[in-house]
Hints:
The protein is α/β, with parallel strands linked by helices. The chain has helices spanning 19-30, 42-56, 70-80, 103-131, 152-172, 190-203, 207-217, 226-237, and strands spanning 10-13, 34-39, 60-64, 85-88, 134-139, 177-184, 248-251.
Amino acid sequence: MLDFGLTGKKAIVCASSKGLGLGCARALAKTGVNLVMCARTEETLAQSAQAIRDETGVSVDIVACDISSEDGRKAVLDTAGHVDILINNNGGPPPGDFRDWNRDDWIKALDANMLTAIELIKAVIDPMIDNKFGRIVNITSGSVKSPIPQLGLSNGARSGLTGFVAGVARQVAQHNVTINGLLPGQFNTDRIEGLIDAQSRAQNKSREDVRTMLEERNPTGRLGYIDEFGFACAYICSAHSGYLVGQNILIDGGAGNANP
Ligand code: NAP
């Protein structure tokens, strides 16, 4: 039997009522981790949490909040108390033309996809160091390695987080505290449906044609499943993964650069 060594640990999984965050929450729960899940819409969050409790028997607390806000982060941290694992995730910035983005748009993207994660890392890291165990995973994007032209706000904010974390990860690794990035390519979630909508309008193609094009472009011939993403997250968080430090792991079905 493969034991991840995580039974009874406590994880905060941000933005986890749906999509990639939910995949991570579900996978961690299957390894025996108790959860604090958050999202803005209470109803969906409560349903997802109950499904995880029913399936795995772990304890799941929920906090309906905007994780980009100071109040939201405080509520999540207060609910968790002790934190062994932090999965940073948030909604992604909208696509568009960089000429249309003003300072407010940039600050919003930086707040959501860079500074929120940094604030949460700051809040949990010293207790993790004292405890000689901590696992932090930042869900960013394949755009960190291969920037996507129409997702400039995302490219910029996520690269900022990735650069910051590259340094901190090396400062804390000696304490068995790891920080890594998990970079999704294209997964079957609401977010990808929004991008399919935008592409179908921009290219004057049907949604089905855009989806088929995305699937055919991927070496696997499909988009990813959130449970595949979650499994990778659980692996990074395993008690046996203390030597995996400061990496940015791309899960994209091989769509990215084919260089080794
Ligand atoms: P998703 O399916 O739309 O799910 C987003 C989740 O985050 C929902 O549970 C949503 O619930 C919650 N959420 C959004 N904003 C929040 C906020 N301010 N505070 C708290 N919770 C919030 O999105 P996803 O596809 O899983 O994407 C997750 C992240 O990965 C995004 O940043 C996205 O840009 C990035 N990403 C995704 C893909 C992909 O293929 N799916 C590829 C590259 C990068 P509420 O709306 O109820 O708050």
